Design the sequence.
């Protein structure tokens, strides 16, 4: 154990250090940033995006990309709300089945997405982009463009019930992060995702059914998109075609800012967590310090570039696309 | 027996012909020349944006700032048309070129993936557009617009004037792709960046130029769009980005780079146009169009992409 921190360790923790630096930065500019209330606000805003970012992280680990999350979130949110209201509209009845049903639907959606990509040999970028349209389209077809209100107090308890200052859904999300972490580090599926991302041909040559791994990866991602959809509905109490809007870019950006590489094999669940927090701290911080709203997209963009630059090991990367 | 390998490169336009015939058989009025020309004229702003994106995608990157760039240019054009007249076009293209260059520099020098860098630069362009416009919709003076850019819109005979602009830009891009050092260099970079760098090519410079071209063409798309609408706003071109990317991909320029090109994008844009128009002819309910679009798209992409140059499908 030397006193000097190795370069590798520093880079590994770089996204986390960026997060700390941002918190300190905004706290200096406005001390009210650093409060339990504001922390809860950031956590709440981050929760749905966090679930989606974790889902897409599994895909990025494989070196693929998934752009279907907006469709997946919309269609599972609408499906959940429809089934939930049909079965009684309160968690105290059989309507609770809508919750696991939505997650299952998300998994099936992801499985179909991965299956199309693998079976038709279409690169994931295109397959998932097109399949995302199908998802958004299905949601639109089911709602006819209307909003579905979910007003059950028990379900909205995810938002309204607080423990130690944070809404229930934040704690629940934390639980799902642990599950995702478990899948990533302690299961064959998790290891296989890294094997495919680290070098697909090698993984294939060593006897791994890489196509099956890919489909499983997309299925897993779909289930997490559905969790994101449930949190999004719990947060605003409405399910509609637009529920999925903006999740695509924000979730992928978050994962990359947190240190997940777009070329596969690098990063994991905790990187997604840190990345989502970085993006949400920036978003919240800009409001707290009173930055004019027209500047916020630009400043977010510049800070994202800065965060990625700080946490990329330029010695290892020969070129980027 | 027909050799499938020999048909493969022709799949994009065959797909287009089949789709067009399919709609035409169901409804022959679709095939009327004036109708087809009008359809083509309407899609020109999208086509120009897709043309630019082709360069970014051809080198294995992506330009997600194209839509924000077009938005920004509608604002710039609307504000400065009064003082600069037709020269505002120079300002617009220059702005696009500079923003594209910036994306390229961030991608190549700072090693930020283009997915992130162009998205971020798009955010900067959006902020600038909001600031310049005061977050309001802007309008062009109709007579000033007609004096400077009237030639872009309207029609000559039955041919929409936009098509002349599209043809000129297509020829320019085709020339860049086929007859210039830049075009050859981009092909080399797309086919294998490491090999290109190893053989002494200044890869970074050509990649930056590809993004700059993408930005400049997005700017022209924005200019045409603002002329057509006689105004501008920071969100007016929203909804263009994904269809433009789709047009490039469905034409047969996959994101892996080095395959396809600007001619493919012509076919791809027309495929998108025909699919969209077919919704009207088959009287598909508005709430179902998005889903049908997605399904037809998957079929079209599955048909058009040339997998022989993809080693592993990621």
Sequence:
């Amino acid at each position: 154990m030397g006193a000097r921190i190795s370069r590798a360790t520093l880079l590994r923790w770089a996204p986390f250090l960026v997060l700390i630096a941002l918190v300190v930065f905004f706290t200096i500019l406005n001390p009210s940033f650093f409060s339990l209330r504001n922390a809860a606000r950031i956590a709440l805003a981050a929760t749905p995006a966090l679930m989606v970012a974790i889902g897409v992280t599994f895909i990025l680990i494989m070196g693929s990309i998934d752009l279907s999350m907006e469709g997946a979130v919309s269609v599972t949110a609408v499906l959940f709300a429809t089934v939930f209201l049909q079965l009684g509209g309160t968690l105290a009845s059989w309507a609770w089945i809508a919750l696991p049903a939505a997650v299952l639907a998300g998994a099936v959606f992801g499985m179909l997405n991965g299956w199309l990509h693998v079976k038709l040999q279409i690169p994931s970028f295109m397959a998932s982009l097109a399949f995302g349209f199908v998802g958004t389209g299905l949601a639109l077809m089911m709602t006819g463009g209307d909003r579905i209100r979910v007003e059950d107090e028990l379900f909205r308890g995810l938002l309204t019930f607080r423990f130690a200052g944070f809404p229930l859904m934040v704690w629940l999300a934390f639980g799902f992060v642990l599950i995702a972490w478990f899948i990533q580090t302690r299961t064959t599926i998790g290891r296989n995702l890294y094997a495919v991302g680290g070098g697909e041909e090698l993984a294939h040559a060593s006897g791994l059914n890489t196509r099956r791994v890919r489909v499983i990866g997309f299925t897993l991602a779909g289930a997490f998109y559905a969790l994101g959809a449930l949190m999004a509905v719990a947060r605003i109490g409405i399910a509609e075609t637009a529920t999925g809007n903006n999740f695509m870019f924000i979730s992928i950006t978050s994962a990359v800012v947190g240190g997940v590489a777009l070329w596969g094999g690098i990063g994991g669940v905790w990187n997604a967590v840190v990345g989502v927090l970085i993006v949400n701290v920036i978003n919240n911080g800009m409001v707290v310090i009173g930055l004019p709203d027209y500047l916020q997209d630009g400043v977010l963009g510049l800070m994202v570039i800065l965060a990625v630059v700080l946490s990329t090991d330029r010695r290892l990367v020969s070129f980027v696309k | 027996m027909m050799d499938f390998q020999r048909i493969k490169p022709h799949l994009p336009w065959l797909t287009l012909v089949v789709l067009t015939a399919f709609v035409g058989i169901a409804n022959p009025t679709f095939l009327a020349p004036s109708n087809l020309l009008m359809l083509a004229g309407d899609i020109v702003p999208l086509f120009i944006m897709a043309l630019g994106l082709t360069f970014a995608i051809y080198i294995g990157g992506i330009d997600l700032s194209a839509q924000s760039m077009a938005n920004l240019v509608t604002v710039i054009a609307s504000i400065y048309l009064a003082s600069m007249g037709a020269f505002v076009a120079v300002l617009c293209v220059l702005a696009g070129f500079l923003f594209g260059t910036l994306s390229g520099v961030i991608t190549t020098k700072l090693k930020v993936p283009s997915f992130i860098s162009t998205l971020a630069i798009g955010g900067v362009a959006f902020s600038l557009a909001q600031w310049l416009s005061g977050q309001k919709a802007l309008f062009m003076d109709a007579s000033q617009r007609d004096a400077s850019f009237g030639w872009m819109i309207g029609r000559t005979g039955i041919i929409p004037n936009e098509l002349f602009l599209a043809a000129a830009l297509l020829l320019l891009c085709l020339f860049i792709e086929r007859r210039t050092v830049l075009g050859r260099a981009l092909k080399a970079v797309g086919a294998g960046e490491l090999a290109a760098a190893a053989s002494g090519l200044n890869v970074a410079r050509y990649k930056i130029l590809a993004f700059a071209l993408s930005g400049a063409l997005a700017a022209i798309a924005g200019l045409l769009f603002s002329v057509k609408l006689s105004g501008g706003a920071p969100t007016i071109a929203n909804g263009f980005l994904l269809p433009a990317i789709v047009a490039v991909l469905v034409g047969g320029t996959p994101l892996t780079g080095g395959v396809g090109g600007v001619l493919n994008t012509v076919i791809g844009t027309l495929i998108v146009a025909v699919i969209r128009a077919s919704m009207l002819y088959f009287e598909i309910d508005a709430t179902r169009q998005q889903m049908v679009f997605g399904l037809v798209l998957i079929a079209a992409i599955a048909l058009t992409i040339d997998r022989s140059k993809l080693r592993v499908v990621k």
